[in-house]
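Quick one, T. Sequence first:
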Amino acid sequence: MHILPTRAWVEIACDESGFSGSNLLDPGSPVITHAGVDLAVPEAAEVVAVLRSSFRRRGTTEYKSNLLLRPEQRLELEWFLTTLRGRAHVHVIDKTWYVARRVIELFVAEPSYGAGLSLDRDHYDSALAIYRAPGRTEFLDAFITMTRTKRLKLLDHVVIDRFFATMPSVPALRTLTRAHVEGVLLRLIDDDPAIPPPLEPLVPALAETALFWSASHRSVAVVHDEQSALTRHRLARLRTYLAGAAFPAPPPLLTVTQVDSRRDPRVQVADLLAGIARRLHHGPSRLHHRPSRLLRPYLVGGPPSLDPPTAVRQPTGWRV
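Structure tokens:
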């Protein structure tokens, strides 16, 4: 029987792995993972202490996710993944799929902080057509270059030409005009606050984390490793959007507090889980077959499926 939470809100500690700024098409780093853990500080400190003790015994004082994936650390890795069962979640972002969706969300739909979330099921097929299109990389690279307006506050007409020249034959893009594209780019250049940053996947990742742990029953207060992408204004817009989308349930995202990960063991645990998930998701070996199986229940997201998502998955259990 599923037990509903008795708390009106829950505090979730988060961190990411694989974020590389606007370099979203690097084949060597195809995914970003955003982990959230539902642990109290003493619980997280105990997990960190166990791992530290293990690493010291093996001659190192560091405790990084890549070290946990070494063959000699297999027992510690399996212990870590088993210990967090029901207390953690990892949202996986396929970077190429993220960019393909951003093309549609920015130039075909009306830009919104709900774009790309599991709440938004419109235009899925159009984004999937871009993702599957031959020669998609050059087109998506032109999109990224074109929308990277933070430093150069001018329209780059050469890149806009390349964007249209490499555009795949997707029905949703056939009526797209240069005037419309330039109009949206000018809004980006002018820092229109209504448009979410097109090259910052941490913003929708944070939203998905809040939606997962809220599950329409409670609000989520997030403690996050410091990230320049999570600005005060963006977080305020995201909270407002999610509160409206959740009506009449409690607002999913209550607060976001950014901390130095070295000072919060909960964020350290989230960092380890995100790093493990990214490495095992990208290229699990036979050696890591069992850890990959242990990790699978934590994962949501990743490359697109044939059908759009139908619901936000819920945790395996609530702390009461």
